[in-house]
Amino acid sequence: MYEYKRSQYDLHSIKLAPNFTASEFMCPHCGDVFIDGRLVSGLQQLRDVLQAPIYITSSYRCPEHERVVANTSQSVHSRGLAADFNLGRIKLILNVFQMCVPIFHRVGIYQTAPGIGFIHVDMDTTRSHLYWLNNRVRTGRDTYEYYDSVELLQKAIRQQRPAVRWATIVI
Fold first, then answer.
1. 10 CB burial (10 A radius; 0-12, 13-18, 19+)
2. Residue 96: helix, strand or coil by DSSP?
3. Which among 91, 97, 126 has a CA at the least distance from the CA of 109?
4. Phi-psi region of 138 (alpha: psi -120 to 50; beta: other; left: phi over 0)
5. Is there a contact between 170 and 92 (Cβ–Cβ < 8 Å)?
6. Sheet holding 131-135, edge to edge
7. Biggest CA-to-CA distance, the chain
8. What does the pLDDT look like over 120-131, one tens digit per residue?
9. Where is 168: in which H helix or E strand?
10. Which of 116, 117, 118, 123 is 20 to 30 Å from the Cα of 169, by its Cα?
11. Angstrom distance (rounded) from CA 63 to CA 27
């Protein structure tokens, strides 16, 4: 685990991996960093495969911030095991999902606006749901559909056409 208090360190100068600094993983509420090294290594591995920058949109959340955004104080984000990211809208979400599957323990796909989404990855081995879809555009709120295999997720995606065009969503 990497752990840094914003008040004690210049988080922009601390490299956790060749392409990631501690500041990219800090809590937006308190500015502290608490992040699992396996997650950082996995993100660096993915970045190397993609040969494109990864923009972390959410990672560590202190318990107070987690209560505000997720109505809980304990989640994979508050335990330093998760990150949400996009790629600046340059890649198709399903292609990136396939690249994430062998690297991370759990992977979620989100559509946040028509044709736009992000991916959640985490290293939590205590939860059974490995993959999920979340379509905020269709439902107007977070609605999760969980799958225990990539094959079941892909089948659900095929069944949702043409209502949801997952294959055209970019991150």
1. exposed
2. helix
3. 97
4. alpha
5. yes
6. 55-58, 82-86, 116-122, 106-113, 131-135, 144-147
7. 51
8. 999 999 988 899
9. none
10. 123
11. 10
